[in-house]
């Protein structure tokens, strides 16, 4: 993964389900191998010294950062959203990393999107990406599309033979972005490359 990041010279990386413990700290490995000066990590779960959660790595300094722990619905697991504000081409942009829960009914994802939008300033520039565990037809995605443009229409899961798009890229008030999936099985999801034009 570090080789792929370095080959593409990626400025900001957004990850879900990153793990960290005393024996293998993926955060520090990625920072060291790829030359990132800034990171923001928020754990979803912890077992002994084993932590798992969302991560944003950046070569841009964070102007501001925030995290939101989603509420738990009907005893299902709950995830989080993390956001960082960066200065890019003399403008400020929020990079939002969402990992929505996996609920086949789509109910929990819809509730989490409502929570996220309640905490998001739609008058600012926002790029939203991550594992939404939601098909394009789910109400969570249609709800987001009422406020944001969609930047990706491509199947992303499973990476060995993509059948579904459950990873999404959305944005507002940004001139244009280009998105493409990369042919890589380093994860169970295809990675998405986003270029802000």
Please report the total strand number as a whole number.
11
Unreliable segments (pLDDT under 50, ≥5 consecutive)? none
Please give the alpha-carbon distance between the first and last residues: 25 Å
Q: What's the overall average pLDDT, rounded?
A: 94
Portion in helices: 10-25%
Written account of the structure:
The chain has 197 residues and is an alpha+beta fold. It contains four helices and eleven strands, in the order αβαβββββαβαββββ. Strands 4-5-6-7-9-8 form a six-stranded mixed β-sheet, with no helix packed on it. Strands 1-3-2 form a three-stranded antiparallel β-sheet. The protein has a two-stranded antiparallel sheet with strand order 10-11. Helix 3 runs parallel beside helix 4.
Structure summarized in a few sentences:
With 197 residues, the protein is α+β, with helices and mostly antiparallel strands. It contains four helices and eleven strands; from the N terminus they run αβαβββββαβαββββ.
Comma- or semicolon-separated keywords:
single chain; alpha+beta; three-stranded antiparallel beta sheet; about 40% strand; globular
